[in-house]
Amino acid sequence: MRTTWVAAAAIAFAIGSATTTAGAAEIRLAEQFSMGYLQFNVMKRDRLIEKYASQRGLKDFKVSWQRFNGPVAMNEALLSNSTDIVSGGVPGLITLWDKTKGTSFEVKGICALSSQPFLLNTANPDIKSIKDFSERDRIAVPSIKVSVQAVLLQMAAAETFGEANYAKLDPLTVSMSPPDATIALLSGAGGVSSAFSVPPFQFQQLEQKNIRTILTSFDVLGPHTFTAAWTSARFRKDNPELYAAFLDAVKEATSIIAADPRGTAQSWISDSGSKLPLEMVTKVVTGPNVEWTMTPAATMKFAKFMRKVGTTRNEPISWKDLFFPEIGDLNGS
After folding, report:
1. Would you say 198 and 35 are in contact if contact means Cβ atoms under 8 Å apart?
2. Which of 247-278 are b and which e, b meaning 16 or more Cβ less than 10 Å from the residue's Cβ?
3. Which of 48, 55, 79, 112 could anchor a disulfide with 9, C-beta 3.0 to 4.6 Å?
4. Pairing of strands 173-175, 138-141
5. DSSP label at 123?
6. Three-state DSSP state, 1
7. Percent of the chain at pLDDT above 90?
8. pLDDT at 18 over 50
9. Which domains, from first to last, does the chain contain?
10. How far does Cα 64 stand from its chain's mean position?
11. Averaged over 293-316, what is the pLDDT?
């Protein structure tokens, strides 16, 4: 089944590539609903990919942007050649790396984007810790089982209930985009009493007096990469100038975030159509545990857990196995 699935994906990719490479070069980028992709907002605003691609002599190329909810939809888009570079939590990268390892359609990470905690918030006054969840509770996550929130919930369950019970809370999870999860949590719609969310929505939730945090991802894992970007080895090979331009653009965008967090916050508001106040979004950008960085952190902790519980078949030797070599000189983990 696995071989057939990957082979079908490779055929679809080859057919799509034959169509797109006949005309202008194109790079299609996908992001999700959160503030974990601020480099993408800055890159769009300042046309940084276009800047560096032009510096490399490319004249006839196109940069396009897409938005998905959750790693499943994005990975499917990557495999079907509907997009070229996707971004999300580390488990989404590990899942596709594992499925495509050793094939002609191998997928690896390009770089990290940020390190920051996400929060498990609840509106149920009876829940003090994950031990208190009952079968009546529903926990919203971006994607069940494979999103970074879902995997962290499994890691927390393994620590609390024993490794054999790592999936104990899985039946309580429901897939919702962070905006929809916030609406559901605030209103109680669909029985959603808790949400393992993302910034800024997790902080928007906490503005309600009846909502509080019972767990953070840093409680479970320590500082870790929240968002990363990945692509196929074939795209990297066939489009070296665009790939290099993307890396340079991420590097400059990361510097811009540090130099101008307020301007970056405004870019996110404008790009996402958010109604949140600029002061609140700026506070999220500059949070005490927030780091905008291309260096991967704690990726092997995710990989080892996923292999141990059987979610994946393969375990990388080191974090460098998960990423293409251009960032190999960084002090990753």
Report:
1. yes
2. bbbbbbbbebbeeebeebbbbbbebbebebee
3. 79
4. parallel
5. -
6. coil
7. 80
8. no
9. 2-115+224-327 (3.40.190.10), 119-221 (3.40.190.10)
10. 18
11. 97
